[in-house]
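Entry 14. Ran structure prediction on the chain below.
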Amino acid sequence: MTTQDLLTQVDGEHPERGLGSLIPEVRRDTGASREEVDAALAHYIEVSAEAGRSGEWDAWADLFTDDAIYVEHHFGIMRGQAAIRRWITAIMVGPARYMDFPVDYYTIDGDVVYTYILNRFLPRDGSTPFQFPVVTILCYAGDGKWCYEEDVYNPALGTQMMNAARAQGR
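Output, structure tokens:
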């Protein structure tokens, strides 16, 4: 599947004039403590890791509210849990099936979490992974769910990683 095929398949919205943060569209006043947000983030990381290992992304999509917004700078804006689910299950196949996403650093500011994550392709031969950094911004919605995610990275590095995966026959 080519990048253009994926762009067509996931129906991500691509604003003509760019965008700013869309958090205000979905933010809730949860009154959540830092401990609650931290626990929700730990669960998000755990579910993400399991989805990466198993290739089953439904539990990850379930972490988002029905009205959540997912901004993925290469693939566009997905609105709603159903659109997020369609996108993640479409994208995490082929070479992307052999990735993991370790979190190197994060900080919490109220209900917003800023993370520094490595998107890593794991080579079949066990050699050094190809990786690139992603800043992921999450907004906590309460009850263990997220109403917003935005992934900020250089899409050229993602393409380079997928080309490396294809070269290995993945």
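The helical segments are 3-10, 23-26, 34-54, 58-61, 81-91, 155-167. Will compare against last week's run tomorrow.
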